[in-house]
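STRUCTURE:
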């Protein structure tokens, strides 16, 4: 045998020089996002031969970003629990340092620091700047036609984005819109990627909006009375769809809007559970907006072969078994970050209260609730922690 061929070092170096066409074929056989990233990272030739943004990878089960201190913390490591592998990924994301994460949509995080807002993909580390809130906005068709300087947000104002959603991936769709729902004089606003300013849909929050949802060029908002307002984005208009509350508890902590995979408008009701006047955990009910006659909310115990994901107040979406390989539990159920409170020393002040996190699964047909994970950590209860949220990891 030729000594050159039997040299292990020579054989190892030869792996770098596989034909690019072969590497591309192999890369397209990889269906795991984590494995694909490791595959490209083997060496520079492999990296250059395989696309940074492959379009063949299937939709993945979401990761849960675990809470972390958002103020006074120099650590940029963010921990994500991967439902598919039951592992925790630790990512060094200095881009998130000092930022508040206001939303997760299409694999992108929406970051905010005072008046500055941006999009960030934690997998590719790509960042897209959005218009600052300090600029003068334009008006949507139903907002006041004339805007003067008083409508601009003062740079010193404390503007908090309560929820932010994307209509699509900004990489795949140059016309992608970003919608925000805030506590400022701009109640509802949006911008397109590349815009210089925000477009205001609603100035004053006369509706008491508590959540928003986007579907097929329409923006939907729900108020504290479970009434749905629909905004037509192509022909600027506002339509009050209504939604008779029925058995919905209007005094519950929160109502969420979610688009069902079949196109239904779903409402998820958060029901706080107390034991001896102490909050323990939250349970949920699901309703569908019926269009038979007057719109009304009807409680449902069947959302088909879909799973609803919930975390925090404003992080909710649905995935279908038709789009990805769900575990056996992934049918007609609700998967959520369960937060339980615990006071570790009743002699101390409120600083002794802690949030305990784990992921639970609630079946809608029989109400059975099971733990998917064990304890994912305890976090001191205060407003200086970044709350947990679901992220669907994507290279696009």
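SEQUENCE:
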């Amino acid at each position: 045998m030729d000594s050159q061929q039997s040299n292990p070092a020579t054989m190892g170096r030869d792996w770098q020089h596989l034909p690019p066409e072969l590497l591309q074929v192999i890369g397209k056989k990889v269906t795991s996002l984590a494995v694909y990233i490791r595959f490209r990272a083997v060496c520079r030739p492999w990296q250059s031969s395989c696309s940074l943004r492959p379009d063949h990878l299937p939709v993945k089960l979401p990761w849960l970003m675990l809470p972390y201190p958002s103020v006074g913390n120099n650590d940029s490591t963010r921990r994500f629990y991967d439902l598919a592998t039951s592992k925790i990924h630790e990512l060094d994301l200095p881009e998130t340092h000092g930022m508040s994460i206001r939303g997760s949509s299409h694999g992108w995080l929406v970051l905010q620091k005072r008046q500055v807002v941006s999009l960030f993909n934690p997998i590719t580390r790509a960042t897209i700047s959005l218009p600052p809130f300090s600029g003068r906005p334009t008006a949507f068709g139903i907002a006041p036609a004339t805007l003067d300087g008083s409508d601009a947000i003062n740079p010193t104002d404390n503007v908090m984005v309560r929820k932010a959603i994307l209509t699509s991936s900004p990489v795949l769709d140059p016309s992608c819109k970003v919608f925000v729902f805030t506590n400022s004089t701009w109640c509802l606003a949006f911008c397109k990627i590349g815009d210089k300013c925000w477009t205001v849909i609603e100035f004053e929050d006369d509706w008491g909006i508590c959540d928003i949802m986007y579907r097929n060029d329409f923006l939907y908002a729900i108020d504290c009375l479970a009434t749905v307002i629909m905004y037509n984005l192509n022909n600027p208009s506002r339509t009050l769809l209504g939604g008779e509350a029925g058995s919905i508890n209007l005094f519950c902590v929160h109502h969420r809007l979610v688009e069902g995979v079949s196109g239904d408008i779903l409402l998820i009701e958060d029901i706080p559970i107390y034991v001896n006047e102490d909050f323990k955990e939250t349970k949920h009910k699901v309703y569908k907006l019926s269009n038979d006659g007057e719109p009304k909310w009807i409680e449902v115990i069947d959302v088909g072969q879909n799973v609803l994901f919930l975390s925090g107040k404003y992080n909710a979406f649905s995935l279908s078994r038709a789009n990805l390989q769900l575990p056996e539990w992934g049918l007609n159920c609700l998967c959520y970050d369960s937060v339980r409170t615990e006071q570790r020393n009743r002699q101390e002040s409120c600083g002794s209260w802690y949030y305990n996190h784990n992921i639970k699964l609630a079946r809608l047909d029989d109400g059975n609730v099971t733990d998917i994970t064990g304890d994912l950590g305890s976090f001191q209860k205060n407003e200086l922690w970044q709350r947990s949220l679901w992220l669907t990891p994507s290279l696009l």
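REMARK: Residues 1-12 have pLDDT under 50 and may be disordered.
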